[in-house]
From TrEMBL:
Bias type Polar residues, positions: 18-34
A Pfam short name: DUF5955
UniProt organism field: Streptomyces pratensis (strain ATCC 33331 / IAF-45CD)
Sequence segments annotated as region (Disordered): 1-48
Top-level taxonomic group: Bacteria
Protein name: Uncharacterized protein
Amino acid sequence: MTGTPAGQDRGIHVSGHGTFTGNAQTGDRSSASFTGGPRPADAGESAEIVRLREAVEALRARIRDLAPDELSAAEGTAAESALAEVEDALPDGSEAGQGRVRNAFFTVSGALASVASLAESVRALRDAAAPWF
């Protein structure tokens, strides 16, 4: 086991959520949960990016409100991973960033296609992501 040099923080990178700093537990029976709020808009972000971030957070909220029998764990995990990818790709305006947003949207819409109650939220996400298509 290695130690952290004095004066340096320990951290674990959590995809789409930045860095976690604090105690972490590992092992066969370990579990973790993440509770967060919407990311504050950066002063330099365009209206399109703010709109897309809001659509991502609104869809996350709708997914959290679903009953367990409405969305399988695998579909939920795929959708959350893709939503994190959308956030990670912003505000990158490069062609690669645009491709990441498009691919993540297609993953989200594919994972949630069978959930009729999310159709409106997925449509809102598609509309918000339109500048990247």
